[in-house]
């Protein structure tokens, strides 16, 4: 038995871009540095930490940058979507590993931190390819979204009352290609950032051949997969809201502190959680708490992570 907990922390791509009006690398690095503090607290207490992060806004921005470059000068080739996903892993992983390392050095924690470029196997026949549900990139007004749909052929949908965003396919993760390597790094006491952006989705063509596909796997789903493969005790999902709510965004909104899995099933059935944002988090929480007795999932905001971990805020999903 391990004395200390093995924890997967899932960081939202939107939460890492705390201010949607400031999507600069500088702003993200500032958020990463703040986020590193509660993560370092957990490491300092002796816990083993695996960090998974989203990439919705960031991969959308990388894709848009290449689209603009290709449209303005034909010498610029469009970058394929899986490669853009790989770039987003490097970009966000760099910010997180630099920030976590800084915190560990300040506190005298003698551990290494590294990002593993991670591929995730998906099924090319996954129904997710027929119905794009994953929001990527920036937020637009209804008029801007309609123009983009007409001119660029994008699928644009409203995202949780925050504006319209481009939607891409989001297949289910079946396996993590680098799982054994990630596990051995954690077993050797290193802090690992892996499965970034849900992992780069690849199709297994046999004989070791993997082929990238244009999609964004939900990082909440890969967190549950990672938690299962790494034999994790606690899953913490850090996002943009302090607590999960029912009647979200309505005058009768009610924030929830503790939820049993039966209540989660009921609220999913009643449509309280938006697809592409809160719904995958709740499904992830269910998968995790149902995977073994005593497992819990905490959902809270990046800013409230410390209080959430201390049990003072957030929404905890429990088995009974
Ligand atoms: N029932 C709900 N309770 C709380 N937040 C909700 C709910 N339904 C939708 N949301 C939205 O989900 C968002 C979190 O999802 P998302 O932005 O995809 O997270 P991240 O990128 O941080 O993983 C919240 O900021 C909120 O706008
Ligand atoms: N890949 C992913 O789930 O990204 P977000 O956390 O930004 O939605």
From TrEMBL:
The keyword Transferase applies. One of its GO terms (biological process) is L-arginine deiminase pathway. It catalyses: hydrogencarbonate + NH4(+) + ATP = carbamoyl phosphate + ADP + H2O + H(+). This is Carbamate kinase. GO terms for cellular component: cytosol. Residues 5-292 form the Aspartate/glutamate/uridylate kinase domain. GO terms for molecular function: carbamate kinase activity. Belongs to the carbamate kinase family. Coiled coil: none annotated.
């Amino acid at each position: 038995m391990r004395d200390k907990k093995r924890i997967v922390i899932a960081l939202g791509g939107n939460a890492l871009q705390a201010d949607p009006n400031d999507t600069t690398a500088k702003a993200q690095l500032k958020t990463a540095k703040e986020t590193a503090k509660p993560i370092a607290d957990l490491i300092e207490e002796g816990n083993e930490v695996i960090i998974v992060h989203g990439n919705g806004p960031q991969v959308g921005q990388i894709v848009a940058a290449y689209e603009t470059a290709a449209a303005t000068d034909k010498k610029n080739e469009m970058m394929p979507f899986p490669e853009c996903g790989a770039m987003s892993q490097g970009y966000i992983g760099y910010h997180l590993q630099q920030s976590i390392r800084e915190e560990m050095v300040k506190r005298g924690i003698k551990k290494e931190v590294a990002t593993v470029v991670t591929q995730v196997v998906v099924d090319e026949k996954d129904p997710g390819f027929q119905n794009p549900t994953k929001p990527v990139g920036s937020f637009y007004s209804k008029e801007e979204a309609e123009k983009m749909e007409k001119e660029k052929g994008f699928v644009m949908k409203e995202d949780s009352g925050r504006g319209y965003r481009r939607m891409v396919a989001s297949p289910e993760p079946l396996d993590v290609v680098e799982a054994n390597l990630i596990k051995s790094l954690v077993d050797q006491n290193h802090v690992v950032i892996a499965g970034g952006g849900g992992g780069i989705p690849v199709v297994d063509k046999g004989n070791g051949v993997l082929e990238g596909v244009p999609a964004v796997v939900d990082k909440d789903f890969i967190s549950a997969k990672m938690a299962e493969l790494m034999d994790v005790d606690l899953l913490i999902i850090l996002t943009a809201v302090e607590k999960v709510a029912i009647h979200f965004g309505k005058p009768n909104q009610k924030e929830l502190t503790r939820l049993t899995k039966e209540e989660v099933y009921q609220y999913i059935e009643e449509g309280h959680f938006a697809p592409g944002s809160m719904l995958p988090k709740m499904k992830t929480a269910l998968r995790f708490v149902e995977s073994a007795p005593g497992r819990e999932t905490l959902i809270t905001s990046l800013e409230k992570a410390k209080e959430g971990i201390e049990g003072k805020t957030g929404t905890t999903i429990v088995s009974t």
